[in-house]
Amino acid sequence: MSINKGVINKVVIWLAVIGYLIVNVRMQLNFFAGQNIFEKYRAAEDAAQALSIAQEAYYAKTGWLLLLLILLSGNVPFGLAFGLSYVAYATAMVVFFGFNTTTTIYSLAAIAVLASYFIDGRRKTA
Question: 38 is in which domain, residue-wise?
């Protein structure tokens, strides 16, 4: 019995999406509870620094989406486009915020998504 090509990649993508969804739902709950939603990246000493942290997170997330859309518009397969754009996002987050729990999780998830695309591509299908 063999697993269909692409199944591992799809499962890993869904796990990454679900994980990202959980992070964002928690972030929204914290936001509406009046908490600093960006302190998971870096603690701010004042309002100006808090705004800078928020901007950096926004740039990384916007870059992720823009790169994903560009790759998909160029007919790059979804699994590869998602993996490449996610790695770019995780890299930007590490550049902006260094390695911490959040950026390490993003990095590991991004590598898993991209690796699963290539693992699926190397498997022979019957």
Answer: 7-122
